[in-house]
Amino acid sequence: AARARGPEERPRPAGLSKNERVRLERLLADLEARIEAAEARRTDIERILTEPPPGMGGAELARLGHEFETVGRDIEVLLREWESVAERLA
User: Fold this and answer.
1) How far is CA 62 from CA 45, 59, 68, 71, 75, in A?
2) Sign of torsion, CA 63 68 69 75?
3) DSSP readout, 48-85?
4) Is the CB of residue 89 less than 8 Å from the CB of residue 56?
5) How many whole angstroms separate alpha carbon 45 and alpha carbon 60?
6) CA distance 47 to 41
7) What residues have CB less than 8 Å from 81, skipping those under 6 apart?
8) Series of mean pLDDT values for 10-residue runs along the chain (90 residues)
9) Non-local CB neighbours of 32 within 8 Å, separated by 6+ positions
10) What span, in angstroms and rounded, lies between the C-alpha atoms of 35 and 54?
Protein backbone atom coordinates (compact mmCIF):
# COMPACT_ATOMS: atom_id res chain seq x y z
CA ALA A 1 0.00 0.00 0.00
CA ALA A 2 1.25 3.46 -0.84
CA ARG A 3 2.04 5.66 2.09
CA ALA A 4 0.96 9.33 2.10
CA ARG A 5 3.91 11.72 2.08
CA GLY A 6 4.02 14.21 4.90
CA PRO A 7 5.19 17.81 4.43
CA GLU A 8 8.60 16.97 5.85
CA GLU A 9 9.13 14.38 3.09
CA ARG A 10 8.37 16.61 0.13
CA PRO A 11 11.39 17.49 -1.93
CA ARG A 12 12.36 21.13 -1.82
CA PRO A 13 12.08 22.96 -5.10
CA ALA A 14 15.38 23.47 -6.88
CA GLY A 15 16.90 26.92 -6.62
CA LEU A 16 16.22 29.81 -4.31
CA SER A 17 12.90 31.29 -3.34
CA LYS A 18 12.15 34.75 -4.67
CA ASN A 19 12.57 36.23 -1.18
CA GLU A 20 15.90 34.47 -0.65
CA ARG A 21 17.15 35.62 -4.06
CA VAL A 22 16.17 39.24 -3.28
CA ARG A 23 17.84 39.01 0.13
CA LEU A 24 21.05 37.65 -1.38
CA GLU A 25 21.04 40.26 -4.16
CA ARG A 26 20.75 43.01 -1.54
CA LEU A 27 23.54 41.42 0.49
CA LEU A 28 25.70 41.24 -2.64
CA ALA A 29 25.09 44.93 -3.37
CA ASP A 30 25.93 45.82 0.25
CA LEU A 31 29.13 43.79 0.09
CA GLU A 32 30.11 45.46 -3.19
CA ALA A 33 29.62 48.91 -1.63
CA ARG A 34 31.66 47.92 1.43
CA ILE A 35 34.45 46.50 -0.74
CA GLU A 36 34.51 49.67 -2.84
CA ALA A 37 34.70 51.87 0.27
CA ALA A 38 37.47 49.75 1.80
CA GLU A 39 39.47 49.79 -1.43
CA ALA A 40 39.11 53.58 -1.63
CA ARG A 41 40.33 53.91 1.96
CA ARG A 42 43.27 51.62 1.26
CA THR A 43 44.17 53.74 -1.80
CA ASP A 44 43.99 56.93 0.30
CA ILE A 45 46.24 55.43 2.97
CA GLU A 46 48.69 54.18 0.35
CA ARG A 47 48.89 57.67 -1.15
CA ILE A 48 49.63 59.20 2.27
CA LEU A 49 52.22 56.54 3.11
CA THR A 50 53.91 57.01 -0.27
CA GLU A 51 54.08 60.79 0.06
CA PRO A 52 53.49 61.76 3.70
CA PRO A 53 52.46 65.37 4.24
CA PRO A 54 55.07 67.62 5.83
CA GLY A 55 55.03 67.38 9.59
CA MET A 56 53.40 63.95 9.79
CA GLY A 57 55.07 62.11 12.64
CA GLY A 58 56.30 58.57 12.80
CA ALA A 59 53.52 57.54 15.17
CA GLU A 60 50.86 58.67 12.69
CA LEU A 61 52.66 56.89 9.85
CA ALA A 62 52.84 53.72 11.95
CA ARG A 63 49.11 53.99 12.73
CA LEU A 64 48.33 54.39 9.03
CA GLY A 65 50.56 51.42 8.20
CA HIS A 66 48.62 49.30 10.67
CA GLU A 67 45.30 50.56 9.28
CA PHE A 68 46.49 49.75 5.74
CA GLU A 69 47.12 46.14 6.77
CA THR A 70 43.80 45.92 8.62
CA VAL A 71 41.84 47.30 5.68
CA GLY A 72 43.61 44.83 3.39
CA ARG A 73 42.54 41.92 5.58
CA ASP A 74 38.99 43.32 5.74
CA ILE A 75 38.89 43.44 1.93
CA GLU A 76 39.98 39.79 1.74
CA VAL A 77 37.19 38.76 4.13
CA LEU A 78 34.61 40.81 2.22
CA LEU A 79 35.72 39.33 -1.10
CA ARG A 80 35.40 35.78 0.24
CA GLU A 81 31.92 36.58 1.54
CA TRP A 82 31.01 38.17 -1.82
CA GLU A 83 32.19 35.04 -3.66
CA SER A 84 30.13 32.82 -1.37
CA VAL A 85 26.97 34.87 -1.91
CA ALA A 86 27.58 35.11 -5.67
CA GLU A 87 27.94 31.31 -5.87
CA ARG A 88 24.59 30.87 -4.13
CA LEU A 89 22.98 33.17 -6.70
CA ALA A 90 24.57 31.39 -9.69
Assistant:
1) 11, 5, 10, 14, 20
2) positive
3) HHHSPPTT--HHHHHHHHHHHHHHHHHHHHHHHHHHHH
4) no
5) 11
6) 10
7) 31
8) 52 74 97 99 98 95 98 99 95
9) 82
10) 30
